[in-house]
Design goal:
This protein has one helix at 4-15; strands at residues 23-24, 27-28, 33-34, 40-43, 50-55, 63-69, 74-80, 86-90, 97-104, 110-117. By secondary structure, the protein is mostly beta strands. The strands form three sheets. It has a five-stranded antiparallel beta sheet, covered by helices on one side. Strands 4-5-8 form a three-stranded antiparallel beta sheet, with no helix packed on it.
């Protein structure tokens, strides 16, 4: 399993490219980094700290959700449960900026998303 340092280095590599990724009506137009067959979408992006995660293939298995800020600090960690292929995250009082969401499923697969809080 990758260490937090490995995860942060991956985050930094993507941080440079955040401005080059377009959005279309608040939805990501670029695919997330995906390992395995499940896929997720994060929207809206940018957002106000309230956003939705959609599953391509609905299942009821929870995932671990961790959010990292631009300085590499983990600011949020929770178990995300899906209902009807939809999960909601609410980050109250979170400063505007660039963040990274890491979803880890029960098989240890990681799904990574960049998002902006305005």
């Amino acid at each position: 399993m990758p260490s937090e340092t490995d995860f942060y280095l991956k985050f930094l590599m993507h941080f440079v490219n955040i401005r080059n990724n377009a959005t279309n009506n608040g939805r990501n137009t670029h695919p997330p980094i995906i390992e395995g067959t499940q896929q997720y979408a994060l929207y809206p992006n940018p957002n106000d700290g309230n956003f939705t995660i959609m599953q391509k293939m609905p299942d009821n298995m929870p995932v671990q959700a961790a959010i990292w800020n631009a300085t590499g600090q983990r600011i949020y960690n929770t178990t995300l449960q899906f209902a009807n292929a939809t999960g909601k995250l609410v980050l109250n009082n979170t400063a505007p900026g660039l963040y990274l969401l890491q979803l880890t499923d029960e098989k240890g697969r990681n799904f990574i998303f960049k998002f902006v809080i305005q």
